Amino acid sequence: MTAKSYAAIMDQRAKIMRASVDIDYEQYTTGKLAFDYERLMTDTGYGVETACAVQKRTSVGDTPLVELKNITELARCVSSSGKGARIFVKDEAANPSGSFKDRRASLSVHEASKRGYAGVSAATSGNYGAAVASQAAKAGLRCIIVQEAFDSKGIAQPEIAEKTRACEAYGAEVLRLSVGPELFYMFLRVLKDTGYFNASLYTPYSVLGIETLGYEIALQVREIAGAFPDVVIATHAGGGNLTGTARGLRKAGAVITEVIAASVDLSGLHMASDHDFNRKSFTTGHTGFSMPFTTWPDRADVPRNAARALRYMDRFVTVTQGEVFYTTQLLAELEGLERGPAGNTSLAAAFVIAQELDQEQIVVVQETEYTGAGKHPLAQLNLARRMGIEVRRGDPRDSQPGQSIVIPGHPSQLAVVDIDLEGVRRSYLQNAIQRLPQGERLLDIDLAFLAEETRLSQTHVQEILNELTGKTR
Amino acid sequence: MTELIEKGSWVEIHKVVLKASDRAPQVPEDTREVPLEMRVKGFLLAHAAIGDDVEIETRSGRHLSGRLAEVNPTYSHSFGAPIPELSSIGREVRALLRIRG
Fold it and tell me: ipTM strictly over 0.95?
């Protein structure tokens, strides 16, 4: 085993992480599995107002809330009489690097600067890289972004190629890697080599930075309509977007707002497969991230993930790739907003969910993202065709991720598929008991923790655990 | 004669970080058959030719080594040709909205 082998670096994981995020996660442990989530969050010292103040310094946040009147009208064309809620979108593309990820990056980079780190680093192939690079540029910190960028034939995912360009435009070093989970191994090597701050997507800073988004939505809607939104839909991948938004809504008092997670259905495609890599037309916001992270958030690059989506989601739906491309076209041609595509996942869901609600109700899509070369339906569909994927109009239910993309023939063909949250909760609990050290028993505090994590009663949690382990405790 | 690339040029290097046999145990079969590769850009630290083993200084100031792959690498990602399946959507939905009045 050489000093830089996979095993050697992974063995040092805990030590490298501890030095790079400067948080002693161990002190929050309260049981065999349980930890004090709220104390982990509050110990950072950031409330919504302090986060807002930091973000204001770099012009992050305070983005427009835009009513999508034409898309709402189109939803009413295909809904039952009296249905078709008003659809609003939070135009997060107005942030400095073009997405809500600036909110996530801002507190991390601020902390890195305050604590005297020479630079920041993040393992991300998405908008977050550009956000960290942009914030680092403004703070005068060095920046390294580690991306999974191309397959073994050297074909780059066009959306990631655009993110490479954006990060480099902000003066960052970008390590572009071929496909595989060893992205994390290379990230650890970078942190070890540089001693930079780990601007992980999953630290408390990253999630607290998004609370301002939920908070702003609640206040903006109340100002326009005199009440909080009925529904807020978040594009869901690693869980930070949904968690931060939901927490911000609650902090503003919008406790009855229904929070819905929406992901692109990429079932059947393996996230670490070299073959499948360029057969996905979405690099984020898809089930390849959202399912594993919802059912076990602590698979992240920090010991305890501050993004805990299952605690906050009232509903979890999927849409197809073709439906998101269709909706992206609607946003451009009916509303004059060229955004996305990945960020429009929640808009595709909103178009359908608005039809379930009354006309006076309000649905908010909580983000947009900038668009550009590579980061566009045309780039994705041209690549899809090159990879042999069939692209056609029709019923999106007939599509098969990796084989075909079906763009709806008519707006009435858009639909959402509800994911059974009871099943998701069971998967979470299954993952939890697998993490219980051999010979250990769950303490009462663990049961209380698992109940909070799954939003079930402790009795219900116990019943499921008994079923899963085939015994009584 | 091989063309020499000047010291200080903006270049990209390529390196195999993990050979196929050294990859993480959890990678799926197809990924296990290929090495983990890395590409990174920086300023060339000494004159060299394409294919040489070289050292670069990256934008973060690190010195990294690898095979010299490209000089002044192009950003070649684009939009590509229009997609006919998307082109008619705007016209279709505007017609629906007109019928509704």
Answer: yes
